[in-house]
Automatic annotation (TrEMBL):
Xref: Gene3D superfamilies: YefM-like domain (3.40.1620.10)
Protein family (similarity comment): Belongs to the phD/YefM antitoxin family.
Domain of life from the UniProt record: Bacteria
SUPFAM superfamilies documented for this protein: YefM-like
Protein name in UniProt: Prevent-host-death family protein
InterPro entries found in the cross-reference section: UPF0175 (IPR005368), YefM-like_sf (IPR036165)
Length: 110
């Protein structure tokens, strides 16, 4: 799990293009002031328009494997089953097993 990119207020003068590149790639970022988080920069995209800030951020962070399913449902303000439904409507898997791990899980379950 990669940490979010962090920019200081001063960085914005010299690294603003990096912040825009992150946004174009769908990557949120944190902007700090005096070493403390001050702004969460969230890409302005279709997901944000359709879902609103909480759900869009939850979907994005979950998709990028930065937060767990439970954390994402809490961030989205939804019960776990409702968030799983939201994932389905967004075309995102709730579980992402590598094929060999899934086969092993299935063998164990049977």
């Amino acid at each position: 799990m990669e940490p979010l990119d962090i920019f200081s207020i001063r960085d914005l003068r010299t690294r603003s293009s990096d912040l825009v590149k992150d946004a174009e790639l769908g990557q949120p970022a944190i902007i700090t002031k005096r070493g403390r988080p001050a702004i969460l920069a969230v890409p302005f995209d279709r997901r944000l328009i359709d879902q609103g800030i909480h759900r869009a951020l939850a979907l994005t962070l979950f998709e990028q494997q930065r937060i767990t399913l439970a954390q994402a449902s809490k961030l989205a303000g939804l019960a776990l089953d409702e968030f799983i439904d939201l994932l389905g409507r967004a075309g995102l898997p709730a579980v992402d097993y590598p094929p060999e791990e899934l086969a092993e899980e299935m063998d164990t379950a049977l």
